[in-house]
Write a structure and sequence with these properties.
This protein is of the alpha+beta class and 224 residues long. The chain has six helices and eight strands; from the N terminus they run αβαββαβαβαββαβ.
Amino acid sequence: VFIAQSRASGSHRDVEDEELTRIFVMIPKFYTEEDLREKFKMYGDIEYCSIIKNKTTGESKGLGYVRYLKPSQAARAIEECDRGYRAILAEPKNKSSESLEHDYYSNNSRQEPRGNTLPFCGQPEFCSFEKNESRIQDSVSKRLSVVSRLPLIQEQLFALFDLVPGLEYCDVQRDPHTNSGYAVIQYSTAASAIYAKYKLHGFEYPPGNRLTVIFLEDGSDSSE
């Protein structure tokens, strides 16, 4: 198993440096770079850590980067770190941090906490998060809708979405009038569905045909 580089990327070495070894994480605002390093060093050799700060006040925005020496270490950190960190692969450095923050909050589509439940409350240090920092959408579920202007093939679409752990079923349908494709995907957890949407919305399959991936209401309690 390997991670394919995008067509816009340069050499494999460039891709490995820019796209596969840096992760983007949500952290408590009081974290220092040393705190960040301490939390993530168990997953591999860290080249550097950095925290995104407000340019005017110098205060942490509650977001940071961790760069590892190897892609496998970054992948392990994403898979094994506390879910509250919302860890994802970082965009290449040529994309501004402001743009990445916007994409992170919008594409990751994290759900609004209910009551007094806040991100990271499994660990006392994370309970200092303020509610207005959550910026989370309400529409998250474990089920996704996939729309394509071309017909979809059940086996191939299943294989594509099965790259994200937790796939429960893939149901492909076809509109006989428009020849477009439609499918319903369901994962065992909302976290898997969020990651699949983040990675596969806009993905070209087959090349030249962009998939539209959105959340579908699955009837579950979104507070989970």
